[in-house]
Amino acid sequence: MRHEKPQSSAPAPIWKALAAVLLLPFLIGPLCESADPPEDVPTKVEAYLGALVRMGKFSGSVLIAQKGKVLVSHGYGMANHEHDIPNKPRTKFRTGYVTKQFTAAATLWLQERGMLKVDDP
Fold first, then answer.
1. In total, how many domains does the chain have?
2. Following DSSP, what letter does each residue of the chain receive, concatenated?
3. Fewer CB within 10 Å, N or C, the chain?
4. Domain range spanning residue 53?
């Protein structure tokens, strides 16, 4: 009896998606450093992530806020390819413990640059 691996309808491997998201603070961080964020942050985020989605390299949800004001809240790509369910801003993902060290590194990087404090609410 021969067992075949089921074909996955999932997007690119999770590490590619994580890499795209983890690079986002480095790319838009300088845009958000001022007291009043530029109006073009949503446009630049859409251009960057939209291109990754079209190349099949990103699928997920993004929330970018500064001082309590939401700048970007958007779902990109598909949550479920098999059933054509798109990602939404509130889509939940099963990432387990994979992202904790990346989140910690990104948080400390932002703190070093004075963009947030680890004890911020």
1. 1
2. ----PPPP---S-HHHHHHHHHHHHHHHHHHH-SSS--TTHHHHHHHHHHHHHHTT---EEEEEEETTEEEEEEEESEEETTTTEE--TT-----TTTTHHHHHHHHHHHHHTTS--TT--
3. N
4. 14-92
